[in-house]
Give the backbone structure.
Amino acid sequence: MMTREDVTAMILSAKRQAGLTWEGIAASIGMSPVWTHSAAMGMNAMPAEKAVAMVDALGLPQEAALVLQESPTKVWQQAVPTDPCIYRLYEIVGVYGPTIKALIHEKFGDGIMSAIDFDMSVTRVAHPKGDRVKVEMSGKYLAYNAW
Amino acid sequence: MMTREDVTAMILSAKRQAGLTWEGIAASIGMSPVWTHSAAMGMNAMPAEKAVAMVDALGLPQEAALVLQESPTKVWQQAVPTDPCIYRLYEIVGVYGPTIKALIHEKFGDGIMSAIDFDMSVTRVAHPKGDRVKVEMSGKYLAYNAW
Amino acid sequence: MMTREDVTAMILSAKRQAGLTWEGIAASIGMSPVWTHSAAMGMNAMPAEKAVAMVDALGLPQEAALVLQESPTKVWQQAVPTDPCIYRLYEIVGVYGPTIKALIHEKFGDGIMSAIDFDMSVTRVAHPKGDRVKVEMSGKYLAYNAW
Amino acid sequence: MMTREDVTAMILSAKRQAGLTWEGIAASIGMSPVWTHSAAMGMNAMPAEKAVAMVDALGLPQEAALVLQESPTKVWQQAVPTDPCIYRLYEIVGVYGPTIKALIHEKFGDGIMSAIDFDMSVTRVAHPKGDRVKVEMSGKYLAYNAW
Amino acid sequence: MMTREDVTAMILSAKRQAGLTWEGIAASIGMSPVWTHSAAMGMNAMPAEKAVAMVDALGLPQEAALVLQESPTKVWQQAVPTDPCIYRLYEIVGVYGPTIKALIHEKFGDGIMSAIDFDMSVTRVAHPKGDRVKVEMSGKYLAYNAW
Amino acid sequence: MMTREDVTAMILSAKRQAGLTWEGIAASIGMSPVWTHSAAMGMNAMPAEKAVAMVDALGLPQEAALVLQESPTKVWQQAVPTDPCIYRLYEIVGVYGPTIKALIHEKFGDGIMSAIDFDMSVTRVAHPKGDRVKVEMSGKYLAYNAW
Amino acid sequence: MMTREDVTAMILSAKRQAGLTWEGIAASIGMSPVWTHSAAMGMNAMPAEKAVAMVDALGLPQEAALVLQESPTKVWQQAVPTDPCIYRLYEIVGVYGPTIKALIHEKFGDGIMSAIDFDMSVTRVAHPKGDRVKVEMSGKYLAYNAW
Amino acid sequence: MMTREDVTAMILSAKRQAGLTWEGIAASIGMSPVWTHSAAMGMNAMPAEKAVAMVDALGLPQEAALVLQESPTKVWQQAVPTDPCIYRLYEIVGVYGPTIKALIHEKFGDGIMSAIDFDMSVTRVAHPKGDRVKVEMSGKYLAYNAW
Amino acid sequence: MMTREDVTAMILSAKRQAGLTWEGIAASIGMSPVWTHSAAMGMNAMPAEKAVAMVDALGLPQEAALVLQESPTKVWQQAVPTDPCIYRLYEIVGVYGPTIKALIHEKFGDGIMSAIDFDMSVTRVAHPKGDRVKVEMSGKYLAYNAW
Amino acid sequence: MMTREDVTAMILSAKRQAGLTWEGIAASIGMSPVWTHSAAMGMNAMPAEKAVAMVDALGLPQEAALVLQESPTKVWQQAVPTDPCIYRLYEIVGVYGPTIKALIHEKFGDGIMSAIDFDMSVTRVAHPKGDRVKVEMSGKYLAYNAW
């Protein structure tokens, strides 16, 4: 039975052999690079047409398109990860989490930013003192229910 | 000896009594709301002039301006926090951390986004299906050294 | 500065002295017992009119009504709790969590049950072999975004 | 020696190939979808006749019926799981656990809701602002012994 | 507001000053020593008449009788405790837990020994090679539900 | 090299194929069911004659008798286990551990119940409101040394 | 109510003010330095006559003698401690623990060295390349029971 | 590539087949039993001549002598181990660690007992009330540097 | 697909067979020993020309040069490691970390030493009382941003 | 009884009021800044003359000089700390620990760098692309004993 891990490995191998980029793969299926990489890693399910486009673009077996459409069980590191590039993101959320919460409450009321109805981009911004990484997140505001 | 915790408590109390907002306090010292809240919580050190402005704006004792300028020891929750509004941020970083890393490597090379030479904003974006929270982060790209 | 913990203690003390029940307090402010207890414990923010009703019903100081309206930071036990009554709930979620996920995916698609747009009730159901506790939860279905 | 894991894998594979649903499999053995999925995952033992019906319905080897009848060792995640759909259930139990306990004590006395003499259902409820997931749990009240 | 911790401290102090034993206190309220000590430590709720008897026997304030009747939140050490006398009990349960489970399944079927409808005794048994501690536990068998 | 795990698997397989019970196996080697199961699981070493009897009773290879005589390294779950049948034992020890300690000190002095010079039984006791599981433990009292 | 912690603090204070050593205190009550320090720290109970001698030697209040005779709950660091002097002991036990076990089994059979019927000494041994610390432990061999 | 684990397994297998003891193996290479077992387990590196003697004594392949000379990465259980024989050693170090530290400071000054320039023995001491295990450790005293 | 782990194993094997040292390998590719070992272990990415030189120097397959150029995910032990040689480094950082922070703040202002724009050396320094290990670290100072 | 924490607080307060630097305090007692700060924080014991000099330099009470001479129990963060300046040091040790170990073994043999017979410095090094922090550590090489 073909698993998510199998499909992720096929995608990485095909990408390396064909010398593709995530940017390029994303363009070929008409989605954003963040979402495309994330779905390839098994962290998001693909709509049928996108799964088929992915399989076609990378020359994967047809069965892979079915696997890409299944709801994944998202497993990520609860212990703060050690890789410096990923760690810095946790450091940012650790330091600024209560600040983001305070500002959401000030601007919206008692609620949260959804991590489900959510999108994100990563871009390179030129800067004279050294280029900068820009990360933009957008999530729907959800208000707590009272009953 | 006046501590950071004392100063944070004084700021919160003065803010509540005067009915101020973080947006308003930030404007009065000429800084962004994210940085202002964060420094008030003891997560960033204030330059002397901003510390003085803060103390004046909120009517705090002069000694508080000295405390606000000291380098804080930043302590944050390594265990994933339980508050839903903050938890969702960890969930986002957990799910999309490897994706951000892959795209930084694709766009810049082997390195990271700095969490030190860094800034952030939180804004409200109107949307017909429900307004959205927008979080923007910008950090200097730092390349690994080889020697 | 009056804190959430102060207000919770005042509520518990007033309830004990007046011999009230959660059912009764909830009725007096026109909300459900689950939500009322939860807000009293500092796990939910109260709309202004409900906070005022609470303060009136229990004879608390007026400042308590302001505290009850603030957005709480929800802190709960990540380590599985030891109290048998609460532990059994974790055991149920541990054993049946993947089952609930599978059925949500089967009935709705790739998404989750919201814990924010959410309500719950606890009732006693008579039964010849021993009465039963009935817990009912209802949360809005949220579909994952693709972009 | 055929293990529980082997049988779970056979069931998942047969279900995928035959295009079945949990709802359908449950109907074919005359049990509820929650219990059926849970037993298929190795979290509940099946009575002999249900195990045979399961094996027949999915075309599994006869030995699988014996395995499905054995008492499983139930292993679940003590660390709070990361999958958003399952995490929200822990969040609910974390936030509302003490509330459920307080209401059980108010309605029944000193005791607990059994997680052994227990049943549960998951249903879809149509709603104009977006359909809702309904989870209903029912467990026998057990009073503490004094001796 | 008098707390459980206050009442436990009063009991221990009264016991020490009066030179009482748990055996003696238990006899004076007509309950077993195990249950009596456990309720005194705040791990079990007392029926009204026993709480009154306890308060009378030890000369505690009347309010203590109310506290002793409340449903306690049972908090115990999830990390294996270090005291050698208590640790040995964990070692026994760790080594023999799967054995007890196997024998319960062999003698009763798929289910558990209740820790709620439960009683226990500790006795001293004379023995030529050194006296022995005897611990006897008895709990109602509870069968898993299928639905 | 035949390992303890190999021998445990052979015993479980032979038991299943021959339709034996632990009670029966124990009787055939002249030991108690608790000790027999525990030794079969690799938690106790067998005296030579019992190991030979075990191997004969179940038709295992002769080398298995040597393995059954070796001193095992006892590895058990320090994290509280999730299986409900085993968990309830930890709950009992967690709730009543300090009580057992207090009663041992009252009846014997400063010391412990040995978990090495120790034995245990599990029996079924008929009861009109539902049969009960009875667990009896007996361990030598060991007094602390002063020097 | 005088606690163990109070008595430990009194002993440390009296020792500092009188310029005593553990060696000297131990001699004055006729016990070893290891046991004396350990009992002073609340890790061992004192026989009545030793407790009285301790109280007399250090000029403590008479009530302290009662506290020193009570059975302590021994709480020690399960997380490996950070102090380098204590850490090295854990490192030794970590590295050589399986070796000590293997040699006990080779010399005695299946059993353990008791930590209850146990004594220990710490001495200074002169050595040309630098003096050495000598730690000697002696514990009764306890054989596992089979039943 | 032959690993340390391979060599440890070869040693254990050769020892079992030849019916050797650690005492005997140690004698044949002219080292102590503690050090010999520890090096065999991969917790110490062997000088070349000892490695060759070990390989000759047990009839191992010549490559094993090279592996036995390499500096091992010593990995041991930070979580307190569950095997009763090894656990008692942790209990001793947990209970008496601060005592050993206090006596080292009293006899030597501010420093530690080295775990590197270190040796240890395990012996059996006959005793009328039951033979005793004697563990002797000796480590060089190292004083903290001030600069 | 050749992985980092494969390449690390090839390097270690080639080094052992050719009797090379890290010092020597580093010289042959014109880099420092610290960086060379670290990149070989998969903790740093190699520039193309260095990767090719490494592959040539050790006779590895050409594909290995591609793997050595990829950005690694740096995974290291968050739990303090047990190997004494590595543990001492954690002990140093644990004891002196706050001191290094205080001196950086005194000499530079509010900021950190970069672990990305960073280099390190390890050298042997002769000393009459025993040779010493010298570790030198150099990292760019990064000042916190205020915005 | 004056504690280490009291003395540390007095030093920090005196330093702030007098506007001193660690560099300056260290010079006034004739020791290095690293050692001086560390001893002030309670991580090293001071020789008598240095303790007296410290007390004189900062105008502390004489009793503080006694406290500064006592052997401290060094407690530091085993969980990786969150402050970015200290965290980077753990990241360095995590990433390069195995490299330092490999190079010590290559240059010295099987042993470690002592963290007891140890010294360290922190300096600022001017650099055209941004000044750098230089950390130098020196520890005596200690060879493992074989016996």
Summary: The first helix of chain A runs from residue 4 to 18.
